[in-house]
Amino acid sequence: MNGQIEPMIGRYVHVEIDGEMHRIYFEESGAGIPLLCLHTAGSDGRQWRHLLADEEFAKAFRIIAFDMPFHGKSNPPAGWSGEEYQLTTARYTATIRAFCTALKLDKPVVMGCSIGGRIVLNLAIEHAAEFRALIGLEAADFQTPWYDTTWLNRPDVHGGEVCAALVSGLIAPQSPQASRMETLWAYKQSGPGVFKGDLYFYRVDGDLRGRVETIDTKVCPLYLLTGEYDFSCMPEDTRRTAAAIGGASVTIMEQLGHFPMSENPEQFRRYIAPVLDDILKQSASIKPGVHV
Amino acid sequence: MTPLPDAIDAAVIKAFTEIPALLERTPDLITRGRFLDCECRLGPTDRPFHASIRAGRIVDLTPAPMLMRSWRFSYRATPAAWAEFWQIAPKPGWHDLFALTKRGEAVLEGDLHPFMAHLQYFKDVLALPRRHFAAVRS
Predict the structure, then answer these.
(1) Sequence spans of domains, chain A
(2) Nearest-angstrom CA–CA distance, A46 and A191
(3) Which of A149, A183, A257, B104 is most buried, judged by most C-beta within 10 A?
(4) From the candidate CATH numbers 1.10.10.10, 3.40.50.10350, 3.40.50.1820, 3.40.50.2000, the one assigned to the domain spanning A9-282
């Protein structure tokens, strides 16, 4: 056999979420501290493929990325009859916790981007003790909307094309063209109305202003990293959010936008490696002697 | 040295007049706009152009105002915004048409359907001067 085979393995797990069974697709690689990665709205777990293939990180972390229901290879549940998909804060939180329970993850680190970054804040508010550390990429308690989401799902505009075109501006100009196109491809492939349904959480239901002040980083460390070219979740949105949370770590990432892990994996690695190293050091009493 | 405002205005106007020719040299982009016929208004906030697009080609680009000329949508930005948008590596917040509207440097008006249905086409057409703007300004 001559082909290069990447290290991650994909499987399905059946997960009960709010009383309904879901067949969830996930990929994983490595061994050690569970590191659960959450994709952005309207995309899927492929965004994390470079992290999943990182041999150094995989020495100390069990890196896991799952596709949310309706996304990627996680189909809608069997009972779905075509009603409009709409993600809520409660539903998103329940999905993550149910997945962690299904895989018996012991105090995982959760790293989420965009909507994944927002829900990480909610995990810190409501369930901090369940997690070893939380990492929010492009995360804020709220950000000012910059377009009308009704354009994302209507019969006279191609949903894949308009979703990809909208988010294309959130990618840093310096990001490699191949990575830019791959990032946008997931948006072109997303199911009708899924991006819009995710943004119900982001725009309507998931406003965390006035709640992030209750986050206790002594219970669970919180790291916030935002790309300087992200004009959706702008660096000042992240800084404002962090200012209300005692002990939150903030990093503004140069030459990166809204999709750091997929738009420029090499540049993102420079920023996430020290965070993972810090988490490892804090976990040294559990698993000493491993460094990334 | 920072160019004077008048010099920026003139460079931006000149860059816009070059867009139809730049588009003709970008056949893939014309192909992407092949289903688009549209009258629109594009350019600097105070000195926009009327653009007639047929099958993805800009067949006419005339400085406004034009007597009783209709347009379906309009995208106008300040000359300073266009000048920054057309840098090879624009500064954060100046690198996308919607980044400019969000920061109040551009205004999107009218019936947005042709713009949204061909969003990447318009983003790429309006970015065409990016590789040439430095030369135009000099």
Answers:
(1) 9-282
(2) 15
(3) A257
(4) 3.40.50.1820
Amino acid identity, position A220: C
Instruction: Give the separation between CA A146 and CA A169, rounded to whole angstroms.
Output: 12
CB contact under 8 A, B92 and A144: no
Domains in chain B with CATH codes: 5-130 (3.30.1050.10)
pTM score, two decimals?
0.95
Residue A168 and residue A257 in contact, taking contact as beta carbons nearer than 8 Å: no
Dist CA A212 CA A200 (whole Å)? 19
Strand order in the sheet with B37-44: B57-63, B49-54, B37-44, B73-77, B106-110
Omega before B129 within 30 of 0, i.e. cis: no
B57 C-beta neighbours (distance < 10 Å), count:
17
What tokens does B34 get? Answer: 């092949």
Ranges of chain A whose pLDDT falls below 70: 1, 285-292
Q: Work out the minimum CA distance from A157 to partner chain B, whole angstroms.
A: 5
Is A224:A238 a contact under the CB 8 Å cutoff? Answer: yes
Instruction: Please give, rounded to a whole number of angstroms, the shortest distance from the CA of B95 to a CA of chain A.
Output: 7
> Are the beta carbons of B94 and B85 closer than 8 angstroms?
yes
